[in-house]
Structure formats: C-alpha cells, structure tokens
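Input record (one chain):
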Amino acid sequence: MRESGRLSGMKRIYIASLAASALALSACSFSDAEAEEDGAPKQAASAENSSTDEKIGENFNDKEGYDDEQEASKPEATSKDGKLSVSLPEGVTQQMLGERTTQKIALQVMLDQSRHSPGVIDGLGGGNTDRAVRYYRMANDMGDSTKVDDELMNALYSDVGGDIFRTYTITQKDVSRPFEQTPDGFEAMSKVDKLGYQTPLEMLAERFHMDQDFLAALNPDADFGKVGTKLTIVSHGNRSFDSEIARIEVRKGEATVVGLDDAGKVLVSYPATIGSSRFPSPSGKMEVSALAMAPNYTFDPDSQKWGPDKTFILPPGPNNPVGGTWIDLGKDGYGIHGSPDPQLIAKTASHGCVRLTNWDVAELANAVNTGIPVEFV
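The corresponding structure, as predicted from the sequence alone:
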C-alpha cells in the first residue's frame, strides 16, 4: 500500500518579500566547475513570492490528465516464490528502453513511492539510487548496505505494491502555458517575466519525476505539445507522512537531507547538492524561518568581489537558479531550495546552500513547520 497520512497543526510563514532584509541566498546556482574556479562569484539574492495565489509545487499537484486509479493500480510487478518479475506496458519494448532494465526502473519507482527519493527516475540508477536503497534498508532494519537483492525488492513490493507504469493524457492546461528558452546570463534573464519551463517535455518530465530522455524513450512518437496525446509514464511517488517532521538534518558527507520525527527516526530522505570545497556549507544548527513559493533571485554586486557592477533581479520559475521553492533557514542567507537541473543533484556543487530536485523540495516545504530545527552534520 502507498503511504498515507495527514499533517496537522502546521504553522507557515510565506515570504511576501524579503528584499528589504537583503536576504542572501549564497549563490546556489552554479555548477561544480564554476564553484571550484578561482575568483568564482559569491552571490546574494532575495526571495520574493511572484503571486499570493501560487502554491508550493504547483506543477506537481496538478492531477488532471492522469488515468483513473483503477487503471493505474494494475500491477506490472508481481512476486512469486520470492522473486519479483516486472512486465512492460503495452506498446513498450525492451529495444525502446536501451540500456535501461525493468528491474532498475521498478527499483527507482518503488523507492520514489516510498519515503526515500532516488532523485530523477532514469531507469539507469547510480549514486542517488544507491543512496535511497541504503536509507530504505536502514529504515526497515535490513542493514547498512546498498545491496539490491530479492529481500529488498520484495520489501519494497510489500510496502508500495507493484504499480510501476501508468498513463497520462496531455491536457489543454498543459499546453496553454508559455514555453520559452532560458536566456543566457543574468542581464538577459532579468528581462523576461518568468523563468518557466522551456518545453512541454521538460515540464511533464519534472511532474513525473522522470529524466526527459527516459520519458521520450517510452513515448518515441509522442507530440508532447498536443492536447490529447496519451503517454506512458512511471507511477511516481506522491508521498505523505504519518507523523510530522520534527527536525531536518543536512548530512554533508552523504549528500543527503533527512526529515526526522520526535524520536529521531528518519521519515524521509532526499539526495542533495550541498556546498563545495571552495564554498562549503555551514556546520551547526539553524531553523526553518520561512518559505518562498516561486522565489526570485537577485544578484547584488555590493557583496561580491567578482561579477557585473549592477543588480539583476531574476524572475521566478522552475528554471530560476534556486528552482521553484525556497526554504529559508534564517541565518547567513542559507536555505534549502530547488534546481533548474534535477539530473545534476548530488553530482555537482553549490555555493553553500542545499539543492534538491524541484519536486523533492516542494514536498519537504509542504511537510515542515516554521521553527523546526535544521542541523548541518
């Protein structure tokens, strides 16, 4: 069964505008190469809601277009004699998948449905999938290991079921939004109204927690910009929690953010990009002070030793340098935020902040109270 539950008693402070307090976001937008370069910029930014009507994780909360629950619940994974087998949905062949395997796809999808995110579902696996396996095993008293065996696969199957694939039909709402290429450079980006999705494929892949290449491989003849196009997608997670997150730990050595309950039990874990050797993340304790839905990003030259000599305010959007959600930690401008490049999470570097996929940070922001402690360890 999928996990269910309800959070209660949440206290939230949504940022209407932090520009007046000159909140620094510690230049979280750069790649590993830029983070390590001599003289790389330390940047500042302010967070500001683009609209009081905007919801955290709006793209991930839109349920229109999904097949009905009865159709979606038909399992592709089944267990017999302790072995898990996975079938492909109609119209999908192994040749379409390339190097991806049904076992790896099932592993990532079931982890995504559990409370231990593998990051982007690409059907290939890697370090983020190994990290999620390790945390799932530890949470279920299966040892501190990244081993993928029958015990693990059957435990996941027992927890979340065998729903691996489902279908989605592209809606009018999906194609009605503007899609524009993200300009290069701060000045060009500051002149547009929103740093939104560049293509329907990008938007839909994020909604489904998928790699764009994987989504395209499952649907080689699809027109992702056409209303009524039926897609094969993975049955991605939509996690909720049986108890409230009481504390967050940013585990720098493991490239992981975890949410814990009052007893110290790990409720959820996410892969994360956490600082770099040149701009390391801090140590010690902070707390969640506010949340910014669709934050902007402001470059402030007065706090820099490098870069342009004027202020640039970059508009909100999922391709904003801090992604679609900002969790403010109320100290030295540090925060937990999204990313315009989900496939690079835990594989590049930041300038001290904590970067998650846009869907993982939206989930975390919807599951935390202001005032809960955040510790960098």
